[in-house]
Design a protein that fits this description.
Layout: H1 3-17, H2 34-51, H3 57-70, H4 73-80, E1 92-96, H5 106-114, E2 118-122, H6 130-141, E3 149-151, E4 161-165, H7 168-177, E5 183-186, E6 190-194, H8 201-212, E7 222-228, H9 234-239, H10 250-265, E8 270-272, E9 277-280, E10 290-296, H11 299-308, E11 313-318, H12 345-351
Parallel strand pairs: 1-2, 1-4, 2-3, 4-5, 6-7, 6-11, 7-10, 9-10
Antiparallel strand pairs: 8-9
Length: 353
Amino acid sequence: MFENDKKRCFIELGKFLSQFSEDKNSRNPAVLFNTPFFEDFVNLIQLSQSHNGWYTPENVYFSIQCWAKALTEENLDKWLSAYNLQINEPKNVGLILAGNIPLVGFHDFLSVLISGNNVLIKTSSNDQFLLPFLAKYLIAIEPELSQRITFVEGKLENFDTVIATGSNNTARYFEYYFKNKPSIIRKNRNSVAVLNGEETTEQLVALGEDIFRYFGLGCRNVSKLFVPKGYSFNAFFEAIFEYQDVIHYEKYANNYDYNKAVFLMSNFKLLDNGFLTIKEDSSYASPISSVFYEFYENLDEIKMRLESESEQIQCIVSNNLIENSIDFGQTQKPNLWDYADNVDTISFLLTTK
């Protein structure tokens, strides 16, 4: 396939996905292959929560809309302009995907195909249906892709290189099992926000999006706050109050009750607003329904610490306090060129023999 053919497939996919939103599923007659796919996709979205209790229609629609906005000709051209995508011999690239948030492995899937390689996919048991459906749509657009896309149910075999995502524990297994193959092994990471007390109400409300989207299950969700010594959390709690309905979701509420009880039984000092606990803690990884915080006296010390511990951090949110930080409310809307763990997947795929 030529580069333009590959891009065309994903541009058409973006147009297809743009029809689906939480407010309304609106059929566009100009979109290709709507007759066999539109209603089935609506049904799949509605059934997603029965497949994975965390995959509420709201969050599935959010993920779909993010990809619809990313898969435009302008974005694809901007992303791919940095690379020479002429590959002499396609590689078989194995993907071992996570399932913590809807379509979390789609960027790797896209990167493998757009770089001219073949993809062997082992989906997570928590996300077995969305990506295969989108793959079928792509194959309808370009039947040649049927020879390039394989979903694997058993052991991953016959691959030249691998991209595997998991926990720190599974990463040790991956590193051993794939030690003789070129690989990208992704481990646990968390995201942080650095505040200085001068944030606007709008920014703090947007920070709530970074915390609560996908119930905090993603590596791009903010799980840790760095705040200046003496910081009052009143404005923060007032701003995030509009996310209070999260407590009405049973799985989240169960985690809130359990983790709060564990903290209290351990005599930890907590701040609590009825749907989120915040606890002073040096760790980055807070449990669901909780955010950790840490005081600082010198912003330069925080900058040095974040740099030295960068392998634990996915992204940083701030009001331009930290270089290359992300604006409030944008953590779950990465661009195509925002790579997980800051590892350039396309460069890896193009240079690996």
